[in-house]
Amino acid sequence: MVAAIGWVHVGDLHLEDADGWESLGRLRAIVDQVERHIGSAADFLFLPGDNANHGTPDQYAALTAALGDLSIPWRIIPGDHDLEPGDLTNYEAAIPPANRPETEVIAGHRCIFLDIVSGGAGGPDFRLTMHHRNRIAEELARAAAEGQPPLVFMHAFPGDLAADGEAVARAFADGGVAFVDTGHTHYNDVLNDGRVIYAATRSTGQIEEDGGRPGFSFVAVHDGVPSWRFRRLDAPWPHVQIVSPCDRRLVTRPADPRQVPRPGPVTIVARVIGAGSDAVPRLHVGEAMTDGMGPGRATADRAGRDRHAAQADALAITPGADGPWRGMADDPRSLTAPVPGGLLQGSARPHPADAGDTVTAHATDGGRGSVPPATPIGEDGIPMTPGADGLWRGEVALPPGVSFVTVTCGASRDVLEVLTRPVDQIPKRGPPVALGQDCHTVGAWPQAGIIGAGLGPNRNGRKW
């Protein structure tokens, strides 16, 4: 039986009355969306610390009251702001023990919830006590013995620990941890250190990035394959998330065909959450980037050639007097494509540009990939089939290289960049270095909701 788990991550709340309880209203809106659209499609809701901005009883009372209408379980860990009174007495008095376990088996996964604040001196002095260090080793050994994929929940990345961060990250890597879910950053980020995937979700209070727009992330681990997507509160429903195979950015086991499939028939698995009973998601496959072709892409499309430009998150760009072509959008993406000598630079293959061509630039993720237009198989793509587990599946044939796989349902979609390699051409990886450090960020990833600017108070952001 395939082990599958999914949860809603609500970023650091920083609840307080000084801002008019702004994040409390956002938390209530998230709870409402979970109740109306997600329900049992999530195994639990997770709060990653910095729940109460000053750790006061009234702030915790507001938190627990807002979560009172939630029908799915919720789990919580402390952050440095919860420790602001000097200890976690208020936190522990307000939060029932069942909602703050140290370990719990959920959907066949051993979930390890860590306190990295009470062993420190307050503020960002993150440390694990010897009790927690020993417990990590014990729980990872128990997970291996009982065949339960381990997941870790902590307030910050191991690289943010004041001591033993490298050893902690090494234990996660050696223990086969599939995913580490964190807060603290205030911005969306995903790290891949070659062995473990780490993610941080945008805070719910004190947001600077993306114009201060709140939301939450949905995290899934399907048969050892991680997926992560952030969705704004104003995003349309349903929520579409491809959970298998792996996006190339999240590959940690390149020899595992569940992460790097073999060329040929590949089963695509998706969660479609909050759709109507008559909705049928459809599967599309875009052009593969074959060997020797770079990831950035700009295309010159003659009129009528691209039937699916409206689905491509495309921006029209115009030539300037100085030569480069430019486009701007009402989000953090601005695109420039020089066109000297009639060729579109940054294209996977240069195309001659004629006077009658229209030039379209598709949103890129900082040189690490792109979100190209879907190229359906047939006119409308392949209808996917629902399973008894509530997931949708479809099979496509993928060539060697990177293929862009898209699942659409109504106005929503998800795009995956799938790396496929034959068994005698397994992707190469060097020895792991700087485990658990944010130097391993995957960078900007618009499809997942990652801007990549580091706009948080602990990196490039303003003070709060």
Write up what this structure looks like.
The chain is an alpha+beta fold and 464 residues long. It folds into 2 domains: 4-276 and 433-448, Metallo-dependent phosphatases (Purple Acid Phosphatase, chain A, domain 2); 298-362, no CATH class. The chain has helices spanning 22-38, 57-66, 89-94, 130-146, 165-174, and strands spanning 4-9, 44-47, 74-76, 103-106, 109-113, 150-153, 179-182, 189-192, 197-200, 215-222, 225-232, 239-244, 264-273, 282-285, 298-301, 314-316, 318-319, 324-328, 334-338, 358-362, 382-383, 385-386, 392-398, 401-409, 412-420. The strands form 6 sheets. A 6-stranded mixed β-sheet has the order 4-5-6-7-9-8, covered by helices on one side. A 5-stranded mixed β-sheet has the order 3-2-1-10-11. It has a 4-stranded antiparallel β-sheet with strand order 12-13-23-22, with no helix packed on it. The model is unreliable at 288-314 and 330-376 (pLDDT under 50).
How far apart the termini lie comes to 47 Å
Which sequence of SSEs, written as H and E, runs from N to C? EHEHEHEEHEHEEEEEEEEEEEEEEEEEEE
Write down how many β-strands occur, each being a DSSP E stretch of 2 or more residues: 25
Helix content: 10-25%
How is the biggest beta sheet arranged?
6 strands, mixed
Question: What ranges have pLDDT less than 50 throughout 5 or more consecutive residues?
Answer: 288-314, 330-376
Shape: globular
Q: What radius of gyration results from the CA coordinates? A: 22 Å
Per CATH, the class of the largest domain reads Alpha Beta
